[in-house]
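Sat 14:20. Reprocessing the chain from the morning session after the first attempt stalled halfway. Input below, unchanged.
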Amino acid sequence: MSGDLAVAALVDGRVIDHPTAGERGVGRYTIGFVRAMMSAGIDTTVLCSTQKQRDRWQDAIAGVAVKQLSRDVIVASRDHEPWFICTQLMLHPVPLDVIPSIVTEADLRVAAIVHDVIPQRFPERYLTNDHARVQTRLRTLTCRSIDRFCANSTFTADTS
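Finished this time. Tokens:
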């Protein structure tokens, strides 16, 4: 990639108030990831579905660009050829649309952050609930629509 070629990223910011991950590792990691992208000069926009999420992002990072996760925003961004950054790959609930259909329909490139593979490494301990097993199987199918995976640690990269 040329040094003068701008890179744009649309980050799934819904994770910031996820009921089990928002206040813990995944939510905090995503805030740090967005800060790092902004510091690196990447044109970063955080996509949210609620006003509460937008407010939390603006409280977390001064000057962060925050927009509504909507078809209009996705379509308008296509001229900049952005990457959609999937931040909730393995989170609950099952109906959580981790790669929104509007992203797929717009044919955006998708990078997914792999936060944790422990449930897959120890299914007998972590996937004992039928719903959790089904979710894991369904989420695995989305991998075919992901262009790049980003591990959030050496441990995750080595064990995934």
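The first strand starts at residue 8 and ends at 12.
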